[in-house]
Design brief:
Oligomer: single chain
Strand order of the largest sheet: 2-1-3-5-4
Largest sheet: 5 strands, mixed
Strand content: 25-35%
Shape: globular
Distance between the termini: 20 Å
Radius of gyration: 14 Å
Mean pLDDT: 86
Number of strands: 5
Length: 149
């Protein structure tokens, strides 16, 4: 068993960099990866996410989400919330929710899993994330850092 894994999921497409921005904010705030803490950016991991959950005691996942909310809105999703989001929480094809659901069926979820989403406006390749997304990423990084003590 390893300690904590913080996984920021994204792509180089505008606001879809939300998860990456959270990782950047954590590192800029002085958080350092080590033996007990893995901090990683993932580019649309799909089913590959399942293997990254294995052996961790706690996993914090952050991804962009698309819905009808205000860009920059933060949301936390517990496992009991997943069925309400049958369309997925991710802007990716085989998204985070699909991978987590499969991991659950394979009995591969860590004992503690936190899934956060940042509502995005647009995911245009090569675009810069909007200011609301950048601010939300910093805010969520502060929440995650505080939860780690």
């Amino acid at each position: 068993m390893s300690g904590v894994r913080i996984l920021g999921i994204g792509s180089p497409s505008g606001d879809d960099q939300a998860g990456w921005l959270v990782v950047d904010a954590l590192l800029a705030g002085g958080m350092r990866a080590g033996k007990a803490l893995v901090i990683e950016k993932l580019d649309r991991p799909g089913a590959g996410l399942i293997g990254l959950l294995e052996g961790a005691e706690r996993v914090v996942l952050v991804d962009a989400m698309q819905g009808n909310g205000q860009p920059g809105r933060l949301a936390r999703f517990d496992q009991e919330d997943w069925p309400r989001y049958s369309h997925g929480l991710s802007s990716h094809g085989f998204g985070v929710l699909a991978a987590l659901t499969l991991a659950c069926e394979l009995d591969g979820l860590p004992s503690r899993l936190e899934l956060y989403g940042i509502e995005i406006a647009a995911a245009h390749p090569g675009a810069v994330p909007g200011p609301e997304i950048q601010a939300a990423a910093r805010q969520l990084a502060a929440v995650i850092a505080a939860s780690l003590g």
